[in-house]
Design goal:
By secondary structure, this protein is an all-alpha fold. The protein is built from four helices and no strands.
């Protein structure tokens, strides 16, 4: 297990990610806003939630650059653990 996988496992087991997953599980249309996260922390939190409870996520970013950074981070973290990541900017 490499360092990235160890960090992802810590996020997957984190109680805050567990609460996030619980909120997502209670409603098929749950809307969650992550605030106060910087850098790749957002991607680690989303990846941890996905690994704990695989499902489709609709992620909305402020602009196309932020969306591209998040997509790249998630692709790097999840690699072969998730299906293809589709993106779009409206």
């Amino acid at each position: 297990m490499n360092n990235k996988d160890r960090i992802l496992e810590l996020y997957r087991k984190d109680r805050r990610i567990g609460r996030l997953v619980s909120s997502l599980s209670q409603s098929s249309s749950a809307k969650i806003h992550l605030s106060g996260v910087i850098g790749a922390l957002e991607a680690f939190a989303i990846a941890g939630a996905y690994l704990q409870h695989p499902r489709f996520f609709l992620l909305v970013e402020e602009d196309k650059d932020a969306a591209a950074y998040l997509q790249n981070d998630l692709e790097g973290l999840l690699e072969k653990k998730a299906g293809p990541l589709l993106s779009g900017f409206l």
